[in-house]
Amino acid sequence: MKFEYLVLGIGLNKTKNGFSGEGDWDLYKCFVNNPRGYGEFYINLNRRTGEGEIRFKDTEYADFLTKEFEAEMKGYLDEIERLDKEAEEWDKPAYIRKGIKIDD
């Protein structure tokens, strides 16, 4: 999914009231604008732990962004399924992978 973004902060600490001071969190405000619609969301990433958060800026963007994320994830899930099937084939003996029939 293509989007533009603004850097809101780098190396911030997460508190119960938001972000401030020095820490491991990087904050981005993201903008999706395509023929299907417009939406804004935030991505917060922790460089040390690998944690991440995605939050919609406003509820008015929720339906559009949810559909965009679902469409994007479906493509990834389809590819993972294809790769899983391919990996299963590699667990089989070569003569089965190549479709060679062996008589008993």
List keywords for this structure.
104 residues; 4-stranded antiparallel sheet; 2 helices; 4 strands
Tell me about this structure.
This protein is an alpha+beta fold and 104 residues long. It has one domain. It contains two helices and four strands; from the N terminus they run ββββαα. It has a four-stranded antiparallel β-sheet.
Summarize the structure.
With 104 residues, this protein is of the alpha+beta class. 32% of the residues lie in helices and 42% in strands.
- Silhouette: flat
Mean pLDDT score, rounded?
A: 86
Tally of helical segments: 2
Class from secondary-structure proportions: alpha+beta
Task: Give the beta-strand count.
Answer: 4
Task: Report the portion of residues in β strands.
Answer: 35-45%
Strand order of the largest sheet: 1-2-3-4
Percent helix range: 25-40%
Please give the domain count.
1
Low-confidence runs of at least 5 consecutive residues = none
SSE ordering: EEEEHH
**Compute the gyration radius: what is it?**
22 Å
Largest sheet: 4 strands, antiparallel
CA distance, first residue to last residue: 52 Å
